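Exercise 7. Given the components listed, write out the predicted structure of the assembled complex. Treat all entries as one system.
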Amino acid sequence: FPVPPEAEDEGKTLQIVETYLQNFYNLQRDHQPHLRNKSESPLTAKLKEMQAFLGLEVTGKPDLDTLEMMKKPRCGVPNIEQYI
Amino acid sequence: FTAGNPKWKTNNLTYRILNYTPKMRQADVDEAIQKALSVWSNVTPLTFRKVEDKEADIMISFAYRDHQDNSPFDGPNGQLAHAFQPGEGIGGDVHLDEEEAWTKDGKGYNLFIVMAHELGHSLGLSHSTDPGALMYPAYSYTDPNEFLLPQDDIDGIQAIYGQSNAAVQPTGPVTPQACDPNLTFDAITILRGEIIFFKGRYMLRKHPSRAETELNFISLFWPKLPSGIQAAYENVEKDEVLVFKEDKYWVIRGYDIAPRYPKPIYHLGLPKTVKRINAAYNDENTGKTYFFTADRYWRYDENKKSMDHGYPRKIVSDFGKIGRIDAAFQKDGYIYFFHGTTQFQFDPRAKRIVRQMKSISWFNC
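Answer.
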């Protein structure tokens, strides 16, 4: 099975996760970015939403499968608030 | 469905191509867009007319990074394109990231596939959770010549605009679910210790020591392979998998298709009367490969590279009452035959069927 990359530092992982969730799941830019925070942070909640939607195991954590999905090319979600 | 269920008030829509990418011939861009539009007009009452010099319902353009719609693109890969739900002005418009490697084949990103997806948004569909759906958010390649709009997308768009005016209503492929008791298989093979189940344009991949089953498009690993593989087996000695469809076969080596394939199955020694192979397995102990078609089977010697004499033989006389064989593979000394939703475990030493199970028994359901 896929060999986990060298311990990708948490900062880089957090960057990937945040950007993805901001782009596609409307994560607000001023959320509290703790991944290890016990009470469910907005980021963890959005991560679970993404995992559930894309048929991944819902862990709320940036596991290998989730990160792999986040790196896949995909359709964008335009920001239409200003038009509505 | 998109929040608020936006839809066009008319079924007769207009589109306009504002600019072209230099990465493809203009005619190829036009063709890709027309084909993408027909994906939706074929299953609904919708029609699309091209306009040149005035505002259209669906304005199609290639754009760079920030392009004044509050949704900048991000350069190669990542976000490929986006589209706006039905409505006035920017509503319905499609923007394609100019920095992508747009193509009309499997290299780079296929413009037809991405365009068909974005038009789904232009017509009011949101993203689907079905991994086989066109409206699934992640890009996956399908040969445009083999593309069929999946049932999930047909159901979605027809819920908005109604059925096609055609006499015969179109249907589309359904994404296989590993634990669907009605699931049957086109072909099965071992590949480097994993079991690969072929079904339509999909392959289900099961590693013996991983609980979950992975679903992929065949084209994800082998873009040049057709869907609807009918038989497959692994030659462990040569680390090759041979796959069969109609009267041709391909040799797979890891991610690559061996050069100068496909070849006719007759090169293996099968008679011209055989038009297709239903199933095949290789016995790695004896180096013999068994080809099943209709009610008979042939035996091939991988070392001599020729068919053994005394074949074909009747399947029922040597393997028992199995009926038409959809797929077969050998594992841990047993042969597993698949007939519809039923699976037979055959012991070649005792020369009899020792167990009967469901075809989906391998998926930890």
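Discussion: The interface with chain B takes residues 1, 23-24, 53-55, 57, 69, 72-83 of chain A (CB under 8 Å). The two ends of chain A are 46 Å apart (CA to CA).
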